Amino acid sequence: MVFTLPHQFNGLARRNEKVFYGLMMRVSWMTASAMMKGTKMGMTSVLHTFGSDMKYHIHVHALVTFGGLDTNGDWQFPSCKYALAKYRVLCSTFKNIFIQELQKEVQKQKVYYHLDIQDVIKESEKIRWVVHSTYPTMQTQTIEDYLAKYINRVGVTNNRLSYLKEKQIVQLQYNDYKNQELNKAAPKAYKNLEPLVAMNQILQHVLPPYFQKSRHHGLHSANEKTKASIPDKILKNASSIRTVFEILSHLLSLRPFTCDQCQSNEFEIEELSPVRPKNNTMPVHQSSRAPPRQNSIPSIQHKFEYQFSKKASMQTY
Q: Which of 55, 22, 52, 59 is nearest to 204 (CA)?
């Protein structure tokens, strides 16, 4: 699912980035969970403020479970067959919840703007807000590709930027979605920018300090205890870790550990219990400290000579 903020709020969002970005993350979860009341859903979302052409375009990409768990622990599916809810219901619910939450922030005097905020809100109420959703799928590879594409994505990469020294302009490559044909990749297009304008378009997408752009809600939350009941056979953490080690081994040119005798890399892991003595007491290890220096402690002979000389002097006196 993709939740998009209308461009009527762009000026207000630039002035209050932390408030609006937080509202987008929170309201997107509130909208999705409102479609399945009485159930516990899961959602992983990521905030993007950029489009392919680096314009200011605030939206949230979300991966939402198709349904949720009820109080009895049974999975409940949505009433719609191919979506969490109907398109108009999603759009209107997202708009109503966002405006309500924004009004609360305005009343707390956390939103500042040089124009009347209520006029901007009234203007946004006249249009339809956009919430895009795709068909549900159980293909884990599709879900992983979606997460890898959007969660750790940056605004622009080096291969999309080029500086034309003769003309002293920056050329940006982007996807031309307006001329995209059905079931085909978007064609590539280019736009020329002055260096200062290009720097401004890139720096405007820097998030506020300590802002968490990726968040997990409901069943996807780290504190959710329901995940402990999932069988180990379904979890894919082991394969993910193995893939990471395979990539590192290939990059570092590491060879697997092999036996010196048969050159085999197949081993069996056995758990060995500690061996205790017969009297059931652990051996006391001697101290690893170095012995004291000879000059620091007098020897027994020196002590005897000192005591003998002391007694002799007392008798003579």
A: 55
